[in-house]
Amino acid sequence: MTGFPPAGRLGGAPGWYRGDCHTHTVHSDGELTPAELAARARAAGLDFLAVTEHNLAAPHRDWAGLGGDGLLILLGQEVTTRTGHWLALGLRPGQLVDWRHRVGEPGFRRALREVRAAGGLCVAAHPHAPYPGGDLMFPLEEFDAVEVWNGQWSSALPWNADNGAALAEWGRRLAAGVRAGRWQPALGNSDTHLDGQLGTPQTVVRAEELSAPAILAALRAGRSWIAESAAVRLELTAEAGGRRAGVGERLDTGGGSVVLRLRLSGVPEPQVRVHTERGKAQWEPGWSTSAAETSFVRVEVRHGDGRVAALTNPILLG
């Protein structure tokens, strides 16, 4: 069990579920209690929430009764070391991941194996955070996913240079990863410490149901996109020869032309760019490519001042 037993209205049908996988409460360095954080999650329209205290297991007595009624609570930890932070998502109740390792030490890979043995996910957290220990020194390729958008400073600056560096680094590595058959999905989380930060940004996943195994599987597969808030709605699909695929899926193009379809709302005067292994291009209706030209397509949506409003994981072309 990687989440506290639900009180009701979880499970259900396949669909898109919104969540925040990086949060803190008074048990580490946040200002909200678990009950307050759960209430904020419901008010923000989130479907799932990951508890990721610094080097602490989620206390059962405080969280056990807060899930259910449409809110899934995932157990996790922010593994906080002197050479970077990473998220362990999908832990067992009471499980604590050893953080007493540095880059180059065997304890790092041992900790990764422990998380995966529990069915969990290892995520590189804020790889370019501007404080001692926040700049990730562990090899990015060791992780299952990368947090490219961290909203800890969102109340003052929703998009900053640190997020820009993380997104650019992830984007540069994506083509090689797709070609090698092992690419890392991108996540966006609030890293909530203060009231008003939760869900800014949030990760929207296509899962088989609202359950811990299903959400973790969707995150691992990259069937997800990132939104600055619940106001942003997006659907990206690629079509070829009567076949269709969405974000995180592979499209068998049959060697033919691929047409991209985008539905977007909640972003006034959006600037949309399509990213491929050949670079980026201005979005326009009927935008097309082929598997001979690129192994993937993804989309970034920005405001007029350059701030990111949404971004997707890739659709793979074969």
TrEMBL record:
InterPro entries: PHP_domain, Pol/His_phosphatase_N, Pol/histidinol_Pase-like. Residues 19-83 form the Polymerase/histidinol phosphatase N-terminal domain. It comes from the Bacteria. GO terms for molecular function: 5'-3' DNA exonuclease activity; 5'-3' RNA exonuclease activity. CDD domains: PHP_HisPPase (cd07432). Gene3D superfamilies: Metal-dependent hydrolases. PANTHER family: EXONUCLEASE, POLYMERASE_HISTIDINOL PHOSPHATASE N-TERMINAL DOMAIN-CONTAINING PROTEIN. This is Histidinol phosphatase. It comes from Kitasatospora cheerisanensis KCTC 2395.
